[in-house]
Amino acid sequence: MKRLAFLAMIASAPALMAQTPAPQGQASATPAPSSSAPTAIVFSEKGANGMSDLPMGVHRIPDSDVVVSGYQGGGGIGMLFGVVGVLVQSSINAGTGTGKVRNVEDDLRFDVRAKAIEMTNTIMAGEQFRTAFTLTPQPDGSTMTVTPYVVLTFVKKTEDVRPYIVLKTKVATGTDSGKTIKYFCCEGAALPLASLTENDGARLKELLTSELDTAINVMLLDRSQPFPRNDEAKIETNGLLPFIGKPLKWRGFDLGRYKEYNLVEFRGGIFVFSGVNIVEPGALEITPVVKK
Q: Is the pTM of this model over 0.85?
């Protein structure tokens, strides 16, 4: 009960929560032509921010933008936030993660930034987003900085892993640094670590490439003509989320659909899984919140 009360207090604190976007019209599949300069897309080399994007105790695969999570013990509530937990426990947890993947780190590496640039170039060669975005910086236009990284989340009490693609985005216009929106995508069921790392990680790279394609398309759609943010579209979810190794019940907002995927937004920038979660059918239990 104390833990639930604490979470409720945190979630209701406006000073910590991200600003709620105003309701907007239904997004279309093709962005409307605009007379303004297109938004330039730039891919950052910085990777995930250890203080705000990651919970305590994650393990980073050296020389990569791949982090390992889900196995952490202790800490409890610290798993929901950036690094605000007990540093000693964080160090112990990171050591545990190193042990789980020590012998297969080479097979877990995935150059997500290079692949994201390649796939975005391919998508931008078509007509769908040509008027909304450019890959060449514009002197008078906006710039969207995209920081891609990978989160390999262990399912508790198993050696199964759920690989997530994450795209952290921020659109800056002039002196306005813009709002950060993250996009998370995981496709398919959790798989044994051994099956993901065999043949030099071929299965893992195949999964991450597919997820990256989905995430980039959702990102471009939402950042060109935002999906409607309706404060009344509250939903309850139950299931596995990025970074968390066991099912979690959490309240989000229904943003609609992309193909067969549900788009669920978790608000509040202090939570490491906050953002647009691209969810396959059946991957989360989703029920509408009924007004009392």
A: no
Backbone angles phi, psi at 152, to 5 degrees: -95, 110
* Pair of tokens at residue 131: 């008027």
Read off the pLDDT of residues 250-285 as tens digits, 9 standing for 90 and up: 999 999 999 999 999 999 878 899 999 999 999 999
